[in-house]
Amino acid sequence: MTDVIKRDGRRERFDEEKLKASILAAAREAGVMSKRGVEDLIENVSATVIAFSRGKKEVETKTLKDMILTDLDRVEKRISEAWREFDRTKQ
């Protein structure tokens, strides 16, 4: 199982459901509410990150976030912008 290394050095197990929930939250914040479209987007974007993480002992949060945002930029810019805005407000 893969450990995710957080910014503060903490470690936690990679959680596919947490990843999907984060993308869904960004989609809601962006006002993208087409249920089917959002579900497809979540599956496609999360599949990339999940495949990357498999077999790795550890991966940094920043690496995962960069992968997610790159995919979101390509398929639905409003969601990636909502994610980035959320990141700015929590810092």
Description:
The protein has one domain. The chain is built from four helices and three strands; from the N terminus they run E-E-H-H-E-H-H. The protein is globular, with a radius of gyration of 13 Å. Helix 1 packs across helix 4. Helix content is 69%, strand content 10%. A hairpin with a 5-residue loop joins strand 1 and strand 2 (11-13). The chain has a three-stranded mixed beta sheet with strand order 2-1-3. It is mainly α.
Lay out the secondary structure.
Blueprint: E1 3-5, E2 11-13, H1 16-30, H2 35-53, E3 58-60, H3 61-75, H4 77-90
Helix pairs in contact: 1-2, 1-4, 2-3, 3-4
Considering DSSP H and I runs of 4 or more, what fraction of the residues is helical? 55-70%
How many structural domains are formed by the residues?
A: 1
Q: Give the CA-based shape.
A: globular
Number of strands: 3
| Tally of individual helices | 4
Q: Whole-Å distance between the termini?
A: 29 Å
Task: Name the beta content range.
Answer: 5-15%
Rounded average pLDDT: 89
The secondary-structure element order is EEHHEHH
* Radius of gyration of CA atoms, rounded to a whole number: 13 Å
Structural class: mainly alpha
Q: Strand order within the widest sheet?
A: 2-1-3
* Poorly predicted parts: none
Largest sheet: 3 strands, mixed
Keywords summarizing the entry:
single chain; 69% helix; globular
